[in-house]
Write a structure and sequence with these properties.
Distance between the termini: 12 Å
Strand content: 15-25%
Shape: globular
Largest sheet: 7 strands, mixed
Number of strands: 15
Structural class: alpha/beta
Radius of gyration: 19 Å
């Protein structure tokens, strides 16, 4: 097989490698499409390696056709599937623990299916499990709301009946996020989100930005609020009012999906299939694909995310 690996200088290299061999309980998949995530950019920059048991190049979610599967597995050779990966998705063939493989929702293309596992598992993990769920009447705040995770989070929160406050980086993105269901959308280049949060204290926040302003926003949360950190794109330092945190019983939660065990990831994915798969097939939930590139144009695909141009997911095809 060929894979888009990283050489010693962390440059992309389309390289011939031995086909992966399935271990016990693994599924072998011929990849048709893989999604680009911001974690891939971090890995390309040398600061977010794959877990040791996974290939040491980019790719956290993919879709394709099963080549081999264990006996009595829920998928079989020839099935169309999507999969959550710890790395290595920029490959013609991947081997994945069976629990991290799901059938493609009926009616979706391979490109659409490749955009589901990492993004929607991230949203479900953090909003349903880490935050303890969203309900009608909750106020949910999400940053970078035009990203793949952001748009999925907006849809998930609205499905649960929450009011959604979102921040984005352009008027065009603001309009797109409003159409996706957000109630209040702020272009942070033009408007300060602080008075909006003060008037609408969030019950739950999903934060991939962090940075200096984060501490001031955290203290505006509702009593018992849950602020979930999944990245620090604006930097890892802020000033916190600790008294405000304990008096309001605010929970500050750090969370990642990639470092969790296959068993933990499998449980999240099975919950996704049970609760959301039919909604994808009925087009009540959307994967929001921004652009599709052939794998040979991986640099151009990454550049879209680096420039923060995307509204939704960027996909690579094989």
């Amino acid at each position: 097989m060929y894979a888009m690996t990283l050489d010693r200088n962390l440059d992309f290299e389309w390289k011939e490698l031995p086909d992966p061999v399935c271990k016990a309980g693994e599924v072998l998949i011929k990849v048709h499409a893989a999604a680009v995530n911001r974690a891939d950019l971090m890995q390309k920059d040398g600061c977010y390696a794959s877990p040791p048991e996974w290939p040491q190049w980019c790719g956290l979610e993919a879709a394709g056709v099963v080549l081999e599967a264990p006996e009595n597995c829920h998928v079989k050779a020839g099935d169309k599937v999507c999969a959550l990966l710890g790395g290595g998705g920029y490959s013609e063939i991947v081997a994945v623990p069976a629990g991290m493989v799901l059938p493609v929702p009926e009616g979706l293309t391979m490109e659409e299916a490749a955009a589901i596992p990492e993004v929607w598992a991230t949203v479900y993990l953090n909003l349903q499990l880490e935050a303890g769920g969203l309900k009608a009447g909750d106020i949910f705040y999400v940053q970078a709301a035009a990203s793949g995770v952001g748009l999925a989070a907006v849809q998930f929160a609205k499905m649960k009946g929450a009011k959604v406050i979102a921040s984005v980086g352009s008027d065009e993105k603001a309009e797109f996020v409003k159409k996706s269901g957000a109630d209040i959308v702020v272009n942070y280049h033009k408007e300060d989100i602080t008075p909006v949060l003060a008037a609408n204290p969030p019950s739950v926040a999903l934060d991939c930005v962090g940075g200096a302003k984060m501490g001031g926003h955290l203290k505006l949360m509702a009593f018992g609020g849950r602020w979930i950190m999944i990245a620090t794109l604006a930097g890892g330092k802020t000033e916190l009012d600790l008294e405000n945190i304990w008096r309001k019983r605010i929970k500050l939660i750090g969370s990642t999906l990639r470092s969790r065990t296959p068993e933990e990831k499998s449980a999240v994915l099975q919950a996704l299939k049970t609760e959301l798969w039919q909604k994808f097939s009925e087009r009540k939930l959307h994967t929001n694909i921004h652009a599709v590139f052939p794998i040979a144009e991986v640099e151009a695909a990454h550049a879209v995310l680096r420039r923060a141009e995307n509204t939704g997911k960027v996909i690579l095809t094989f």
